């Protein structure tokens, strides 16, 4: 059996998934496309998400911003390129 092809998730997709409580319909739509597939994100997406987290006050401007609780789960499960 061939493993599923990876899917590249852009900032809008990652944001929709991270903010699923605010917009469950958008998150469900994204999940339907990527479920069961390895997710790959660009370093640009990581940077944009980190910038948004800092601006939202979710973490300090230092290393803490990488450990924002809702984003921390994503970083550990994604392949960054």
Name the descriptors.
81 residues, mainly alpha, three-stranded parallel beta sheet, 51% helix
Put simply, the count of helices is 4
* Terminal CA distance: 26 Å
Main sheet: strands, sense, barrel: 3 strands, parallel
The low-confidence runs, each spanning 5 or more residues with pLDDT under 50, are none
Number of strands: 3
> Which series of helices and strands comes N to C?
EHHEHHE
Cα gyration radius (Å): 13 Å
Overall structural class, as computed from helix and strand content, comes to mainly alpha
Question: What is the overall shape?
Answer: globular
**Helical residue percent band:** 40-55%
Strand content: 5-15%
Mean pLDDT: 78
Strand arrangement in the largest pleated sheet: 1-2-3
Describe the structure.
The protein has a 3-stranded parallel beta sheet with strand order 1-2-3. It is globular, with a radius of gyration of 13 Å. The protein contains 4 helices and 3 strands, in the order βααβααβ. The mean pLDDT is 78. The chain is mainly alpha-helical. Helix 1 packs across helix 2.
Structure, briefly:
This protein is mainly alpha-helical.
What layout of secondary structure does this protein have?
Layout: E1 7-8, H1 11-18, H2 24-34, E2 39-41, H3 43-55, H4 69-77, E3 79-80
Parallel strand pairs: 1-2, 2-3
Helix pairs in contact: 1-2
């Amino acid at each position: 059996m061939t493993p599923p092809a990876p899917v590249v998730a852009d900032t809008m997709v990652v944001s929709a998934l991270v903010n699923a409580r605010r917009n469950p319909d958008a998150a469900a739509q994204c999940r339907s496309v990527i479920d069961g597939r390895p997710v790959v994100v660009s370093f640009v997406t990581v940077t944009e998400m980190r910038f948004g987290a800092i601006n939202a006050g979710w973490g300090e401007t230092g290393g803490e911003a990488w450990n924002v609780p809702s984003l921390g789960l994503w970083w550990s499960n994604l392949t960054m390129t």
